[in-house]
Write a sequence for this structure.
């Protein structure tokens, strides 16, 4: 319950996620939501938890490993790091680790296919907030969206086709 409360506080305190003026939002968040929602959310999370833990983290770790393997097979020796917008490992923590390795170039790929301020915009804010304290900045590229990329659409169509064949 405490971990869910901490997550909800971080998530619902993000100005990109909740755009209500702080004077109105803060009492609702701290007086009502954070005192009622964590128990309900914790029960729901428990119902989807897997032996690997959080489904989102388990899937994300598999994606990272597959991407690292794919890039390695293509002859690219790059580090593939995983950070979560809220919770752990945080964007700041992961960037600081990369910084100790003399990071020179950084490609940030938020895993939200289409842009929205509350998702991709918030991830961008977190990256920029961490980098703003660095004296030596890496070259930065930020993928804004990929919902209309052909290979992404092909992969989605193939997945839907497999599900259709299996489940109708």
């Amino acid at each position: 319950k405490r971990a869910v409360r901490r997550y909800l506080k971080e998530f619902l305190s993000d100005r990109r996620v909740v755009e209500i003026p702080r004077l109105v939002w803060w009492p609702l968040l701290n007086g009502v939501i954070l005192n009622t929602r964590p128990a309900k959310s914790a029960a729901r999370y428990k119902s989807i938890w897997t032996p690997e833990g959080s489904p989102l983290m388990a899937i994300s770790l598999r994606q990272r490993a597959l991407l690292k393997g794919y890039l390695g097979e293509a002859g690219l020796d790059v580090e593939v790091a995983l950070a979560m917008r809220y919770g752990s490992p945080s964007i700041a923590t992961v960037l600081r680790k990369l910084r100790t390795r003399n990071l020179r170039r950084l490609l940030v790929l938020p895993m939200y296919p289409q842009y929205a301020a509350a998702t991709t915009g918030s991830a961008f804010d977190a990256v920029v907030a961490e980098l703003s304290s660095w004296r030596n900045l890496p070259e930065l590229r930020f993928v804004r969206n990929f919902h209309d990329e052909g290979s992404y659409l092909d992969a989605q169509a193939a997945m839907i086709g497999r599900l259709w064949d299996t489940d109708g």
User: Anything to note?
Assistant: The mean pLDDT is 95. The radius of gyration is 19 Å. Residues 16 and 118 are 5 Å apart (CA to CA). The helical segments are 2-12, 22-48, 55-73, 91-99, 117-131, 150-167.
